[in-house]
Structure formats: C-alpha cells, structure tokens
C-alpha cells in the first residue's frame, strides 16, 4: 500500500557501537527516539526490538530506512563491505529484517543517507545537485545529481576522504599516502596537534598541552574560547579540506556543498578557511557557482535521511 500523508517512517542509524532509531513523519520531522548499545550478535533482533518499541506509539509506520557504515548495493539490497561491522556483510540482512518486522526496509550507506536527509529537509533544501562531506572519525562523501543519489559504477562515488592532498604525506588505511583523511579526520587532527605540541615549545602555552587526552571537540571548544594554538590547527585543517573542496568544485561544477560531521561543529572557525582555500584554488567561474554551507541536521542527518529514503522508495 503506498504511504498516506499521515504515514510515518522509522530511520535507523547503525554505527560500530550504537543503534539509533527514530520515528520520522512524512515531512521529515523527528518524533519518538530510541537508542541502544550494539551487541556483537543478533543484529536483526536488536533492530526489530527498537522498531517494535517505536511502533507501540507511532501510527501508520509505512517503511524503515537503515543507514549502514559500509557499502550497500541498492539494486540487490545487500551490504557489500563494512569496515566497522564486518559481520553484516554475509548475512541476508535485508530479507531477515523484513521477515522480523513485517515492514519494508531500505538499506543505504550512512554518508549517502545523511546526504539525502540534508538534501530533502536540511542545508541542501532548494538545490538540485549537491555534494555532501562528513568529517568525523573518518571522512565520507556523497553526490546527489538531479535529486538522486549518484553512487557510481560500483557504489563508491564520493570518497572524498581518499583524495590525495599531499603526495609526500603519511600512509592511509586505504593503501594510498597523503589522503585528505590522513590530515583532516578527527583522530588525525588530534595526532597533528600532538606532534606539534611535542615539537614546538611555544605551543605548550596552549591549554591543550595540559590535557593529555584531548579530542577534536576539545580543540574546537578551546579555539572558540580564544586559544591561539587550537585556532591555528583548525584553520590549517580547514585549508586541507578546502584543497579537497576545490577539486570537487572543478570536477563537478556543483551547485551546493554541504559540510557535516563532528569536526564541522567548529562552525565558522573551520568553514571560513575551507571557503578561502577553495576560492584560492578552484577555477573561478566554478567556485562562483557553488555555495559551501554547514550541514543543518547535526547527528540526526543519517537517521532522517534513511527515513526519507524509505518514504520516497515507497512512493516510486
Ligand atoms: Zn586513503
């Protein structure tokens, strides 16, 4: 049965350690939420339990969307690869989820789902084409062309984290050297800051030097409070990201670039150097046609996007 205007949807976001789920209405507004620690075994049962709890209060749940940290083939609904949850790759996850809940499920990569959420009801609203970049523990990306996710020949399109930024840079998990992710993901921002604190005695004046286990979030907070060292490190990170963004702009002449993920919580402190560097490096007519903006949905992007994918798949 096609969804009605009073239908609701459930968006689920899987990460390596957590399961988050929420009821999302037809307009993308989040209602009831549930969250659970992800147990190693019995993923289908855990998802079905959260979905069941949400259905106790939600009316007319028409379908479920699930954002997966891995590569998903939307044609076959199979998870092809997942670094964080290798156990989900060989299971027939899609059929088992539907059998366990009696609901239709849409599976999608988490960055793609977040991009779709931003496109439909977040910072991408009103654009026809967008590139979404998420910068957190890793760096992911997704491309929406003419209102649809464009995933490439084998589903990997948008892997902006593995654009080479420094040909002499350090080794990346992917086997290449000098990828954007090796300098700009949250753990790598912290690594660079620690290396610099160790090397450069003047930076020990930074409040960061007093906190051995600081995170990228701590650096953003210190920068906002006026810590020069943290500000400088975030600005440099923005320049690296802006270098990658310039390549995207030149390649796609894309209307809008939406920047999300935990590292972007630094707001204008990181967005400004990204835009400046992209402007400096990109082909000018391309740059002028592109808006570079902060994401609007925060940590809900993938959950909302997954629910909206479930909604739109049910219509077509
Ligand atoms: Zn790489």
CATH top-level class of the largest domain: Alpha Beta
Number of domains: 2
Estimate the mean pLDDT confidence: 92
* Biggest sheet strand line-up: 3-2-1-4-7
* CATH architecture assignment name of the largest domain: 2-Layer Sandwich
Strand content: 15-25%
Number of strands: 12
Helix and strand composition category: alpha/beta
**What is the global morphology?**
globular
Main beta sheet: 5 strands, mixed
| Spatial separation of the terminal alpha carbons | 12 Å
Q: What percentage of residues falls in helices of 4 or more residues? A: 25-40%
Q: Tally the helices: what do you get?
A: 10
List SSEs in N-to-C order. Answer: EEEHEEEHEHEEEHHHHEHHEH
How would you describe what is shown here?
The chain has 316 residues and is α/β, with parallel strands linked by helices. The protein folds into two domains: 8-117 and 300-315, ATPase, nucleotide binding domain (Nucleotidyltransferase, domain 5, 2-Layer Sandwich); 123-296, Nucleotidyltransferase, domain 5. Helix content is 39%, strand content 22%. The protein contains ten helices and twelve strands. The chain has helices at residues 43-57, 93-101, 110-121, 181-184, 186-199, 216-224, 228-252, 268-281, 284-288, 301-315, and strands spanning 8-14, 18-25, 30-37, 61-68, 71-73, 78-81, 104-109, 130-135, 139-145, 148-149, 256-260, 291-294. The strands form three sheets. A five-stranded mixed β-sheet has the order 3-2-1-4-7. The radius of gyration is 20 Å and the shape is globular. The model has no long low-confidence stretch (mean pLDDT 92). Zinc ion binds at residues 162, 172, 174, 176, 179, 181.
């Amino acid at each position: 049965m096609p969804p009605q205007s009073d239908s609701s949807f459930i968006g689920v976001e899987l990460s390596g350690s957590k399961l988050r789920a929420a009821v999302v209405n037809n307009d993308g507004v989040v209602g009831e939420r549930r969250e659970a620690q992800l147990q190693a075994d019995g993923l289908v049962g855990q998802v079905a339990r959260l979905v069941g709890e949400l259905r106790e209060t939600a009316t007319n749940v028409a379908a479920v969307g699930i954002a997966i940290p891995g590569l998903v083939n939307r044609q076959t609904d199979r998870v092809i690869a997942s670094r964080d949850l290798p156990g989900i790759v060989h299971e027939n996850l899609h059929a088992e989820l539907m059998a366990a809940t009696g609901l239709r499920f849409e599976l999608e990569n988490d960055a793609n789902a977040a991009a779709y959420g931003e496109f439909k009801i977040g910072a991408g609203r009103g654009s026809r084409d967008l590139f979404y970049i998420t910068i957190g523990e890793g760096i992911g990306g997704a491309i929406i062309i003419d209102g649809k996710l464009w995933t490439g020949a084998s589903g990997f399109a948008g892997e902006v984290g593995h654009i080479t930024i420094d040909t002499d840079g350090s080794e990346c998990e992917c086997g290449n050297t000098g990828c954007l992710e090796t300098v700009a993901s949250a753990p790598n921002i912290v690594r660079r800051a620690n290396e610099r604190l160790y090397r450069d005695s003047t930076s020990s004046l930074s409040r960061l030097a007093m906190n051995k286990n600081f995170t990228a979030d701590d650096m953003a907070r210190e920068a906002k409070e006026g810590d020069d060292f943290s500000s400088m490190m975030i600005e440099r990170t923005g320049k690296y990201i802006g270098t990658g963004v310039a390549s995207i702009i030149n390649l796609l002449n894309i209307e809008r670039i939406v920047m999300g993920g935990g590292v972007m919580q630094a707001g204008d402190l990181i967005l400004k150097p990204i835009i400046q560097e992209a402007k400096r490096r990109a082909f000018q007519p391309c740059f002028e046609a592109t808006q570079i903006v902060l994401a609007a949905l925060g940590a809900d992007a993938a959950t909302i996007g997954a629910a909206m994918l479930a909604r739109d798949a049910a219509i077509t």
